[in-house]
Design goal:
Blueprint: E1 6-9, H1 24-41, H2 45-50, E2 57-64, E3 73-83, E4 87-96, E5 102-111, H3 122-125, H4 127-141
């Protein structure tokens, strides 16, 4: 896996009265992990925005597997699932950092636009960025060593 996992400690304000993290926060955590992924690539939002490039969310999905409670820490692994030069998709796996229990999986899709909202092709306008995305997408699609050994989900325990 080319990206270092992102860690997040569940905050009290993210929970409901049962101290269970509200489902909407998993989407926020995916965004935090996506920002971290882009920074690991050297293409943080600050870098892109200085060049006039924005990257809005086109879609996001989440499949909730088990509950996260305050004050647990989760580890979020990201994979660049698809990259076309104009669009990209990211996969997320959120696990309890201490036990490895799967909490949530998800995906998000994004595109590149300029300040007027017109689509931008990184291949044409930023070939060095395009090469980075291609390299990381290729690495993300390779099976990880020992990937057959997965941690248990809460249902399997």
């Amino acid at each position: 896996m080319p990206f270092r996992p992102y860690r997040h400690k569940a905050q009290y304000y993210e929970t409901d009265t049962m101290k269970i993290v509200h489902h909407s926060n998993y989407i926020r955590w995916m965004e935090e992990a996506r920002v971290d992924m882009l920074e690991q690539m050297g293409l943080g939002y600050d870098v892109m925005e200085r060049e006039g490039i924005l990257s809005p969310v086109l879609s996001v999905t989440a499949q909730y597997r088990s509950m996260t409670r305050f004050p647990e820490t989760v580890e979020i692994r990201v994979r660049l699932l698809r990259y076309t030069g104009v669009r990209f998709e990211i996969g997320y796996e959120i696990r309890d950092a201490a036990t490895g229990v799967l909490r949530c999986t998800g995906q998000s899709a994004h595109c590149f636009i300029d300040g007027s909202g017109a689509p931008v092709s990184l291949r044409r306008k930023f070939p060095a960025w395009d090469a980075l995305f291609c390299r990381f997408a290729e690495q993300s699609l390779r099976p990880a060593a020992g990937s057959a050994a997965k941690s248990k989900t809460a249902d399997e325990q």
